């Protein structure tokens, strides 16, 4: 085991030495000098790209069939395309619109549900203690837990449904590129919140539906305005 580790370390050192020696030879051949030309490595992007283009691709040394080092696996570390490595550089995926629908919906729904449970549970605790039928500790604790569970579950479910509706409506607006037709940059979330409130109270009648839509738009507008102030 020790001999194998020493052999791998020695082969890896030979590999690094081969890369440095080949780079030095390429630099001497391109510049017509017998020494390393440091001027090629200025902090200038154009000069570096010109040097890389003139140097050409590196090749992997052949250590023989008995080598246990996978050169194709470690070649991308040194900017060399091995036998199994892709020829092009890898880049992280980036979406200019930010997080996708699933990530955004999961975040909003989870935070809304958790916030509803905490807020509703806190209100239930106060109501349970206040409306306890007896002053005994067991009775008051039972009333507290019942009220907290009832209020917390209802508030969490309601806010979770609202968050799901809002995320879906906002995704539809983004897919339709609705921001191109509105003059204000933050108008799409406000419109989505208003539509969410109206959809949530659609079966309660016209007046409650309009009131819920107005409340949703006002709350989201205040949130967007506050976020803009905090960024200043």
TrEMBL record:
It is found in: Membrane. The chain crosses the membrane at residues 209-230. This is Mitochondrial import inner membrane translocase subunit TIM23. It is a multi-pass membrane protein. GO terms for molecular function: protein transmembrane transporter activity. GO terms for cellular component: TIM23 mitochondrial import inner membrane translocase complex. The lineage of its organism: Eukaryota, Sar, Stramenopiles, Oomycota, Saprolegniomycetes. InterPro entries: Tim23-like. It comes from the Eukaryota. Its main location: membrane. Keywords: Membrane, Transmembrane, Transmembrane helix. GO terms for biological process: protein import into mitochondrial matrix. The keyword Magnesium does not apply. It comes from Aphanomyces astaci.
